[in-house]
Amino acid sequence: VSNLLNMTRLEAGAFQLILEPCDIQDLVGIALAPYTERRYPLALKVSIADELPLVQVDVSLMAQVLVNLLDNAAKYSPEGTTLEIQARPHTDGVLLSVADRGSGIPPEHLDRIFDKFFRSKQQDTSGTGLGLSISKGIVEAHGGRIWAENRPGGGTLIQILLPYPNGKRGQA
Questions:
Q1: Could you say which of 70, 82, 90, 126 is the most buried, measured as most Cβ atoms within 10 Å of its Cβ?
Q2: DSSP one-letter string for 14-30
Q3: Which of 172, 152, 149 is nearest to 162 (CA)?
């Protein structure tokens, strides 16, 4: 029900962002708190570049995006594999990524995984098919971009590009 309400708000343009300067390290830490509490049977590797500029985000909503991505990655990854979170500078903003070593996404589904209710039939897992769609809406409401790729060697890479505040690198 919560996902449906969030989706309706996003579509109606009624999502009120509370933007504040945020350190990416803090954002990742907030998103990882529920991950570590659930004790997923997967290792976690976090790599955050030094001296990333602050980004203007609604911390609660952007943390929810990362939680959604981690939940999906954990859901589709075999036990004993490693989930990776990375943050690094990009010419247009800060690039955040969540990567797994699961089975990947069929190439014909890569453009559709962010559609409402779309679920790839490759594995029998629970879920409504709204998490990635909501995540996309939140990222786009921040002026960012989100996309998926298959990783060489297997797995999925979801990337989020958050723009620098006022379009200027290093300013917050």
A1: 70
A2: ------EEE-HHHHHHH
A3: 172
Residue with tokens 């943050």: 87
CA–CA dist 101, 45 (Å, integer): 12
Q: What angle do CA 34, 40, 43 make, to 5 degrees?
A: 105
Strand order from edge to edge, sheet including 82-90? 43-48, 82-90, 93-99, 156-163, 145-150
What residues contact 77, with CB distance under 8 A and at least 6 apart?
42, 83, 100, 101, 102, 155
Question: Cα angle at 93 between 87 and 96, to 5 degrees?
Answer: 25
pTM (2 d.p.): 0.84
For 81-94, what is each residue's pLDDT tens digit?
999 999 999 998 99
* Token reading at 107: 């190439």
Residues 75, 76, 80, 82, Cα dihedral to 10°: -90
Q: Which residues contact 156 (CB under 8 A, 6 or more apart)?
A: 73, 76, 99, 100, 102, 104, 105, 148, 149, 150
pLDDT in tens, 114-154: 876 556 655 555 555 678 988 998 999 899 999 999 999 89
